[in-house]
Structures are given as structure tokens and as C-alpha cells.
Amino acid sequence: MDIVELQVSEEYKSERIDKFLSASNKEWSRTQVQQWIKDGVVKVNGVNVKTNYKCQAGDEIELIIPDPEPLDVIPEPMNLDIYYEDEDVLVVNKPKGMVVHPAPGHLKGTLVNGLMAHCKDLSGINGVLRPGIVHRIDKDTSGLLMVAKNDLAHEGLVDQLVNKTVTRRYKAIVHGNIQHDHGTINAPIGRDKVDRQSMTVTNVSSKEAVTHFRVLERFNEYTFVECQLETGRTHQIRVHMKYIGYPLVGDPKYGPKKTLPLNGQALHAGILGFIHPRTKEYLEFEAPLPEEFEQVLTEIRKNSKA
């Protein structure tokens, strides 16, 4: 562990303690500092304080930085499809069928296992089983994910998600023929009271959820669409498209039993854009549709013309 001692100068009088400390070292995110304060490793004039404590000129601050908690994730060398990487962030194209992060009883073969083998520096804000993970996509959804390699980057990317400034556009094939060229689904999503493993549109214990969609191509019994997320709730696109009567093709949880032969839903996170947390440059990436997705589209087009 490291012990850091600081004294508050006149210019930082009345500054919140968490803001003061995060400004004292660029490697200390405000989220991390707040956790340290809650853990009792920050003392002001020898006394523990709360995160909203207002500093006074002359305050003596002692911070005992604990040793990093060892990760219980086994690094596994994988052939990751990395689209971008620097000292702060990484963008990876996750294949369909891969789980993003380990869970109790499922500690191998996930994207995080591969990331741990690829790079040793991942942010620790999400704990030992989800290092670096800022947002997720479902196991059977393919596409682009941004990963934070340090806490500064993690906090910056999360802030963008909260402020709805991240560009996230998905391609999907749905059952039915959508007549509107574009639309917006604004319906809150929460846990299904009957099936706790599923999400549903509900006003009970739910959160705001907004999905924009536009039609790319129409077929006899299906529609090829692009969905843009404004919020990022669990299973949001899958739940919202079912809610308006156009469930995703191949979706084992929210779609019809009679569907096209796919291993999971036809959903691909194809476009991802965000402001780099350090350089402030806007970055945008696009990943092509997976081969299986393209094959299904080709088959639908051929049958629609028959």
C-alpha cells in the first residue's frame, strides 16, 4: 500500500474532498476516490469524512492507497478482432456466442479472459470479474464494444453513456413488414415479474428506455432495420421490437418459436462512436455484418423474389 499526504491550499477552500483528490492526480478517477472515502482510507486531520466534505485551507489529508485486489480471471490467449487500441481505450468486435465477462461458475472463454491475456492494464471500477467493461452486448449479439484500460478512461466513457452522447447503431432482422420508414420507441423497461430472467416494457420498477429505428430493406415476411440506442437497458432492442410487434429473427427469449435457423437473435452492433476521454477527439468505427447474418439476408432476398 502507498500513503499519500496532501495539504489543502487557500485556492481549494470549500472544494468537495472527492473533487479535490481526483484533481490532485490524473490517475485517480472521482469514482475511485469516492470508493476510497467510503472504505475509510481517507482521513482529514486524522478523521474520516464523507464524500461531500468541503475542504478547508490548511486541512491535512492522508490517503492510504490499498494494494490492487488480485483478479480472479484467468487470462486466455484469443484471436481478438481489435479495431482500435491506445493507452486508454480499446475497441473490439465481439463474435456471436461469446459472453462478455465472467460470472460465478462461468470463469472461462469470455471476452474479458481474452482481454486479460491481450493487455494487462484494464480499469478496475467494475470489480474483479468485469475489468475494463464499460457496456455490454448479449452473448448472441455480435459487434463493437469499447473497453477502458484505466479508471480515467472508464469514468469518461461512462459519463458519455449517461449523457447519451455515445453513438450505438445496430443492424437487425425482424419478423413482419414494418410500414413506417423510421420511428422511435419510448417505453420503460424493467424485470418481468413472472419470468425474472426476462425484461419487459413496464411502469413497475423500470427505467427509461428509448430506441430509434429506420427501415433499411423490406421483404415479404421480414424487415431489415437499423436501431440506434439512446439508452442502454438490458435486452433493450429485443424487448422494444417485440413490444411494437416485430420481434427479432432467431431470438430464443423474445421471438416466436417458428423462426429462421439461427443460433440466437439476428442483431449486430455495427457502428460505435465516442469522444476519446483524453484527447477529446470523436472516434467512430464500423464492423461489417457477420457471415451468418449475411447468409440469412441473402436467403431472405432470394425467397422474397421467388
Automatic annotation (TrEMBL):
SUPFAM superfamilies: Alpha-L RNA-binding motif, Pseudouridine synthase. The keyword Glycoprotein does not apply. Keywords: Isomerase, RNA-binding. It comes from the Bacteria. Gene3D superfamilies: Pseudouridine synthase, RNA-binding S4 domain. It holds the Pfam family PseudoU_synth_2. SMART domains: S4 (SM00363). The keyword RNA-binding applies. Residues 15-79 form the RNA-binding S4 domain. It catalyses: a uridine in RNA = a pseudouridine in RNA. Its EC number is 5.4.99.-. One of its GO terms (molecular function) is 23S rRNA pseudouridine(1911/1915/1917) synthase activity. InterPro entries: PsdUridine_synth_cat_dom_sf, PsdUridine_synth_RluA-like_CS, PsdUridine_synth_RluC/D, PsdUridine_synth_RsuA/RluA, RluA_PseudoU_synthase, S4_RNA-bd, S4_RNA-bd_sf. Belongs to the pseudouridine synthase RluA family. This is Pseudouridine synthase. It comes from Metabacillus malikii.
